[in-house]
Design a protein that fits this description.
It is built from 20 helices and no strands. It is mostly helical. α12 runs parallel beside α15 and α18 packs antiparallel against α19.
């Protein structure tokens, strides 16, 4: 049986590598190419080459998704899956940016910091078109050209370093940013293995969902989104906290917050871990859990902001993304629909209605996060699993939702969810959302059609897998709540068990 699985894993590895190569090769023709490339590497081509590029890109992407699904059924171990991860990530390393132009914003903002511009009050359009970062600024998506940076100072320190090292040139800048993305991928894999061990999960299965995921490969390695770095630092911080090094963990979460602010959600759940691991009176434990990680992360935030030299303007730009409508945001869609209905019936301005619904969505997300924090505090849900659910709730109710935002919670749940509906849902959505964006970064209507068809097919495959599992188990052998999709042989569940006793593990980072 092991030989059969190993052969199957090798076959899926080769299939996925071929798919990744096709998606990357197609990107050279139809990816998110810069407006001007002095090197002549990433330039537009004729109609015939473009058509072939789209065929390669979409065909390769589909092969990658199929290979990922099949690989999950092989039960491959950690070593095989790490090798597969290298095979599947390698084709994207030298490719142009794929599925998004965000990396050009990163490069332009790094050049702005280098030149002394206030990135929190103006957009990339202030750069000299013929100066450092000018080509990157010209390649930024239209709606972001005059938008201040919503990112934290730590990420801008990295972007400034890239701009300094490359002189603001586009191609070297993108490749250096990709090195950062690959570092984030490696850190994610490291943290997943440790979190999976803490939760009694199979490491290979955790890597399959959290690192080998085609949504992550295309949008973090291919698309270079800094969400990958945020998630990696946050996940590593949580892993350190579970192993008793909560001060180190809080520092990493603070750095993650200085990439993108949603990482702050992790502090609530690491606080639960710290408080429950502490000794002494209940009040002392609660205070330590509530204030300890937050105080350390807060100190990191202040220190990084001061060292970055960009000021605290990032506090005022956290809502800029919400001004741009994305069709994946349910609250924005509902608010916009109600606003237009109000204008049709009463002649009112639709914008206040949309804003109100968006704010209600965020309030609902905060309530759900608080509820999950309470459940983890009283032992009904394990804190790390609750963190994954909280991040999914935040994404679902946010005023702006992009396909890769699903990764915020998915990388966490990959290490905690052994099976069941939550895992099935993120697997199906991961496969579907890769189609929502074109390789060129635009969001065509047919992308939603492809994503919907993939969702429908995914649901059918889930039900088929459930039926096969029930037939194998026979009547009376299961409890009806086992994994619908392959979970790599993990048998533990992420339900309401209390955390393992971690008191002796907490001492190295501040004792108890």
């Amino acid at each position: 049986m092991r030989a059969t699985r190993a052969w199957s894993a090798v076959g899926c590895r080769r299939l996925g590598a071929a798919g990744a190569a096709g998606a990357a090769l197609g990107g050279w023709a139809v990816g998110t190419l810069p407006a001007h490339d002095p090197w002549g590497l990433w330039v537009p081509h004729g109609t015939a080459v473009t058509a072939v590029g789209y065929a390669l890109a979409y065909g390769g992407l589909t092969v990658l998704v199929v290979a990922w699904w099949l690989y999950g059924r092989t039960g491959a171990g950690v070593r095989d899956t790490l090798v597969t991860l290298l095979w599947w990530a390698a084709p994207f390393v030298l490719a142009p940016p794929l599925y998004s132009a965000d990396v050009y914003s990163y490069l332009a903002q790094g050049a702005m910091v280098l030149e002394g511009h206030d990135v929190y009050s103006v957009g990339p359009s202030v750069l000299d078109p013929d100066g450092p970062g000018g080509d990157a600024a010209a390649s930024v998506g239209g709606q972001w050209t005059d938008t201040p940076a919503p990112y934290g100072p730590f990420f801008l320190i990295l972007a400034r370093a890239v701009a300094w090292a490359t002189g603001g040139a586009v191609v070297p800048g993108v490749l250096l940013m990709r090195l950062i993305a690959l570092g984030a991928l490696a850190l994610t894999a490291w943290a997943l293995l440790r979190l999976a061990r803490e939760h009694g999960r199979d490491g290979g299965a955790a890597l399959w969902l959290g690192a080998l995921n085609p949504l992550l490969l295309t949008h973090v390695v291919g698309g270079l989104h800094n969400d990958g770095l945020m998630a990696a630092l946050m996940l590593a911080g949580v892993a350190c906290t579970l192993r008793g090094r909560w001060v180190t963990g809080s520092v990493l979460i603070g750095l993650a917050m200085m990439v993108k602010s949603p990482a702050a959600v992790a502090l609530l759940f690491t606080g639960v871990v710290v408080g429950r691991a502490a000794t002494g009176a209940v009040v002392r434990r609660v205070v330590k859990g509530l204030l300890g990680p937050g105080a350390v992360a807060g100190a990191v935030v202040v220190l990084v902001t001061l060292l970055g030299g960009t000021g605290f303007g990032w506090l005022g730009t956290q809502g800029v993304a919400g001004r741009i409508h994305t069709a994946l945001s349910a609250t924005s869609d509902l608010g916009l629909g109600l606003g237009h209905l109000g204008r049709l019936l009463f002649g009112t301005d639709p914008e206040p209605v949309r804003s109100a619904v968006q704010n209600l969505g965020l309030a609902a997300a905060l309530v759900l996060i608080a509820l999950l924090g309470w459940r983890s505090a009283v032992g009904r849900t394990r804190p790390v699993h609750a963190l994954g659910l909280a991040l999914l709730a935040l994404v679902a109710l946010s005023p702006m939702v992009q396909p890769w935002y699903l990764l915020w919670g998915t990388v966490v749940l990959a290490a905690t969810a052994g099976g069941g509906r939550v895992r099935d849902t993120v697997v199906v959505l991961s496969a579907a959302l890769v189609y929502e964006t074109q390789p060129s970064g635009s969001t065509p209507a047919y992308g939603f059609v492809l994503a919907g068809l993939t969702c429908a097919l995914g649901v059918l495959l889930v039900r088929r897998t459930e039926a096969e599992a029930e037939a194998e188990a026979g009547p009376g052998d299961g409890d009806g709540d086992g994994p619908s999709l392959p979970s790599g042989g993990a048998t533990a569940r992420s339900g309401a068990r209390p955390l393992v006793n971690q008191r002796t593990r907490t001492a190295p980072d501040g004792g108890s």
